[in-house]
Specification:
Blueprint: H1 9-25, H2 37-55, H3 59-70, H4 76-84, H5 88-104, H6 108-117, H7 120-124, H8 126-131
Helix pairs in contact: 1-2, 2-3, 3-4
Protein backbone atom coordinates (compact mmCIF):
# COMPACT_ATOMS: atom_id res chain seq x y z
CA UNK A 1 0.00 0.00 0.00
CA UNK A 2 1.29 3.40 -0.94
CA UNK A 3 1.31 6.02 1.82
CA UNK A 4 0.96 9.69 1.15
CA UNK A 5 3.88 11.94 1.88
CA UNK A 6 1.67 14.16 4.05
CA UNK A 7 0.73 11.20 6.27
CA UNK A 8 4.30 10.02 6.87
CA UNK A 9 5.08 10.90 10.50
CA UNK A 10 8.85 10.58 10.10
CA UNK A 11 8.80 12.96 7.14
CA UNK A 12 6.62 15.40 9.08
CA UNK A 13 8.92 15.22 12.11
CA UNK A 14 11.86 16.19 9.90
CA UNK A 15 10.36 18.76 7.53
CA UNK A 16 8.30 20.81 10.01
CA UNK A 17 11.14 21.87 12.34
CA UNK A 18 13.43 22.58 9.38
CA UNK A 19 10.86 24.86 7.74
CA UNK A 20 9.94 26.61 10.98
CA UNK A 21 13.61 27.36 11.64
CA UNK A 22 13.96 28.45 8.01
CA UNK A 23 11.11 30.93 8.45
CA UNK A 24 12.67 32.59 11.47
CA UNK A 25 16.41 32.43 10.66
CA UNK A 26 16.44 34.41 7.41
CA UNK A 27 16.31 37.86 8.96
CA UNK A 28 19.55 37.24 10.85
CA UNK A 29 21.62 36.75 7.69
CA UNK A 30 23.73 39.84 6.98
CA UNK A 31 22.92 41.81 3.83
CA UNK A 32 24.67 40.67 0.66
CA UNK A 33 24.80 42.53 -2.68
CA UNK A 34 22.26 45.16 -1.72
CA UNK A 35 19.59 42.81 -0.37
CA UNK A 36 18.79 43.79 3.20
CA UNK A 37 18.46 41.36 6.08
CA UNK A 38 14.69 41.97 6.03
CA UNK A 39 14.70 40.96 2.37
CA UNK A 40 16.45 37.71 3.26
CA UNK A 41 13.88 37.21 5.99
CA UNK A 42 11.00 37.53 3.55
CA UNK A 43 12.67 35.17 1.06
CA UNK A 44 13.32 32.55 3.74
CA UNK A 45 9.76 32.89 5.06
CA UNK A 46 8.46 32.38 1.53
CA UNK A 47 10.61 29.29 0.95
CA UNK A 48 9.75 27.73 4.31
CA UNK A 49 6.04 28.43 3.93
CA UNK A 50 6.01 27.17 0.34
CA UNK A 51 7.61 23.88 1.36
CA UNK A 52 5.08 23.47 4.17
CA UNK A 53 2.18 24.32 1.84
CA UNK A 54 3.30 21.71 -0.67
CA UNK A 55 4.11 18.95 1.81
CA UNK A 56 1.95 19.47 4.92
CA UNK A 57 -1.09 21.66 4.35
CA UNK A 58 -2.38 25.17 3.81
CA UNK A 59 -3.95 26.16 7.12
CA UNK A 60 -1.35 26.49 9.85
CA UNK A 61 1.66 27.24 7.59
CA UNK A 62 -0.22 30.35 6.44
CA UNK A 63 -0.60 31.49 10.05
CA UNK A 64 3.08 30.66 10.63
CA UNK A 65 3.93 32.90 7.69
CA UNK A 66 2.01 35.81 9.22
CA UNK A 67 3.67 35.21 12.58
CA UNK A 68 7.14 35.13 11.02
CA UNK A 69 6.43 38.30 9.01
CA UNK A 70 5.47 40.01 12.26
CA UNK A 71 8.98 39.47 13.63
CA UNK A 72 10.62 41.33 10.73
CA UNK A 73 11.70 44.80 11.82
CA UNK A 74 10.18 46.84 8.99
CA UNK A 75 6.80 45.11 9.16
CA UNK A 76 5.81 44.46 12.76
CA UNK A 77 2.68 42.71 13.96
CA UNK A 78 0.36 45.71 13.59
CA UNK A 79 1.22 46.18 9.93
CA UNK A 80 1.01 42.46 9.15
CA UNK A 81 -2.35 42.00 10.87
CA UNK A 82 -3.93 45.07 9.31
CA UNK A 83 -2.66 44.06 5.87
CA UNK A 84 -3.94 40.50 6.15
CA UNK A 85 -6.98 40.18 8.43
CA UNK A 86 -7.97 43.85 8.27
CA UNK A 87 -8.18 43.89 4.50
CA UNK A 88 -11.65 44.21 2.97
CA UNK A 89 -10.92 41.30 0.61
CA UNK A 90 -10.35 38.99 3.58
CA UNK A 91 -13.64 40.01 5.17
CA UNK A 92 -15.47 39.53 1.86
CA UNK A 93 -13.99 36.07 1.31
CA UNK A 94 -14.60 35.01 4.91
CA UNK A 95 -18.30 35.86 4.79
CA UNK A 96 -18.65 34.40 1.29
CA UNK A 97 -17.19 31.09 2.47
CA UNK A 98 -19.45 31.11 5.54
CA UNK A 99 -22.56 31.69 3.41
CA UNK A 100 -21.48 29.11 0.83
CA UNK A 101 -20.92 26.51 3.53
CA UNK A 102 -24.31 27.23 5.09
CA UNK A 103 -26.08 27.01 1.73
CA UNK A 104 -24.25 23.79 0.81
CA UNK A 105 -25.66 22.10 3.93
CA UNK A 106 -29.19 22.69 2.66
CA UNK A 107 -30.83 21.42 -0.53
CA UNK A 108 -30.90 24.90 -2.08
CA UNK A 109 -27.80 24.36 -4.25
CA UNK A 110 -29.19 21.10 -5.61
CA UNK A 111 -32.54 22.74 -6.40
CA UNK A 112 -30.89 25.62 -8.25
CA UNK A 113 -28.71 23.22 -10.26
CA UNK A 114 -31.72 21.08 -11.21
CA UNK A 115 -33.65 24.20 -12.20
CA UNK A 116 -30.93 25.35 -14.62
CA UNK A 117 -30.48 21.88 -16.10
CA UNK A 118 -34.22 21.50 -16.71
CA UNK A 119 -34.73 24.85 -18.45
CA UNK A 120 -36.08 24.50 -21.99
CA UNK A 121 -33.34 26.70 -23.41
CA UNK A 122 -30.68 24.62 -21.65
CA UNK A 123 -31.96 21.40 -23.19
CA UNK A 124 -31.67 22.75 -26.75
CA UNK A 125 -27.90 23.03 -26.89
CA UNK A 126 -24.90 22.89 -24.61
CA UNK A 127 -24.00 26.48 -25.42
CA UNK A 128 -27.40 27.66 -24.23
CA UNK A 129 -26.85 25.77 -20.97
CA UNK A 130 -23.52 27.50 -20.43
CA UNK A 131 -24.93 30.98 -21.00
CA UNK A 132 -28.33 30.53 -19.34
Amino acid sequence: MKTKLKDNTIFRAIIIPICVILCFIGQFIPSINGLSSDGFGVIFIFIGTLILWLTIGIDWPSLLCLLALGFINNFGFNKVLTSSFGNSTFAFLLFTFICTYAISKTTLIKRIAIYFVNLKISKKNGYFFIFS
